[in-house]
Amino acid sequence: MNDLRDTGLPIMKMHGLGNDFVVVDARMHDRKITPAMARGIGHRHFGVGFDQLAVITKGAGDAHLTFYNADGSLSAACGNATRCVARYLLDETGKTSLHLTTARGDLAAAEVGNGLTAVNMGQPQLDWRDIPLAREMDTLELPMEGAPTATGMGNPHCTFFVDDVDVVDLAAFGSRMEHHPLYPERTNVQVAQIVGPDHIRMRVWERGVGITLASGSSSCATAVAAARRGLTGHDVSVDLDGGTLQVAWRNDGVWMTGPTMHVMDGTLTAQFLDSLT
After folding, report:
1. Bridge partners, residue 244, by sequence
2. Counts for the chain of helices (H) and strands (E), in that order
3. Fewest beta carbons within 10 Å, which of 24, 68, 109, 113?
4. Which of 218, 214, 216, 223 is nearest to 250 (CA)?
5. Which whole-number Å values give the CA distances from 79 to 69, 83, 162, 178, 248, in the listed order?
6. Contact at 8 Å (CB) between 220 and 153?
7. Which residues, 6 or more positions from 82, have their beta carbon under 8 angstroms from its beta carbon?
8. DSSP state of 141
9. Which residues, 6 or more positions from 152, have their beta carbon under 8 angstroms from its beta carbon?
10. pTM flag (> 0.90)
11. Cβ–Cβ under 8 Å, residues 116 and 259
12. Are 119 and 108 in contact (CB under 8 A)?
């Protein structure tokens, strides 16, 4: 095992619809990623920049994934990063399906052709305790401004249905709602517009990150919320600022399908890494 104290840390830069990630394949070295390292790497001026950092380690299945937000906080789930890493592992192994483990639980991933990768993000968490919320309440319409829907996808979500997502000041609205007292662990915030019975337009404020061009777990949460409220069916297209994802809420979980991009490989220098510890 290489501890990388002198040679630096190999990384990959990937994105799913502009939702961008630094990926560390830690299966063959023992350099530990810390919250301070994640914050430093995630800085878009003094580091590399990312929406999430994904760390691949050996696991009970094909691999285990750990996710950090840009502020260094951990996230149990990250749908687009899972798809990006799944694409990398599918290409590496030649397999057509994978068993991945995360803090969210076991996730299945699959090659679906035409350059698309699908991930089963598991069953949504609909009980207030599991999301979690601060106290017992109906998660379909929360007792707060806009009567949003709460959903857990391994991380908390708050979905507001609006007439026009483009008129919302998402920077101000998202930052305020992320810290709403009903969400003790903060929340991802979505504003969603129903275009048709199988079509949603959505914009995203991610917890610990800010505005992102896309979010897989947010797309899953919004699709579930729309179906629960009778606004759509269980199989929808979700148009985000960075592109479109297909989301299907099935008996075995919420499947999300879309493209991925492996942008580059590089190495973080030992000097830079030492500055973060």
Report:
1. 239
2. 5, 17
3. 113
4. 223
5. 13, 6, 24, 19, 13
6. yes
7. 54, 65, 100, 102, 107, 109, 119, 121, 216
8. S
9. 124, 125, 126, 130, 131, 132, 221
10. yes
11. yes
12. yes
Coil, helix or strand at residue 136: coil
pLDDT in tens, 62-108: 999 999 999 999 999 899 999 999 999 999 999 999 999 999 899 99
Q: What is the pLDDT of residues 151-201, one digit of tens each?
A: 999 999 999 999 999 999 999 999 999 999 999 999 999 999 999 999 999
Q: What is the 3-state secondary structure (H, E, C) of 167-216?
A: HCCHHHHHHHHHCCCCCCCCCEEEEEEEEECCEEEEEEEECCCEEECCCH
Q: Would you say the C-alpha torsion 27, 31, 36, 42 has a positive or negative sign? A: negative
Q: Decide: 2 and 267 in contact? Cβ < 8 Å.
A: no
**b/e per residue 115-130 (b: at least 16 CB within 10 A):** ebbbbbbbbbbbebee
Residues 90, 98: contact at Cβ < 8 Å? yes
**Bridge partners for 4 per DSSP:** none
Nearest alpha carbon to residue 12 among 261, 265, 268: 265
Instruction: Please give the Cα distance from 262 to 169 (Å, whole number).
Output: 31
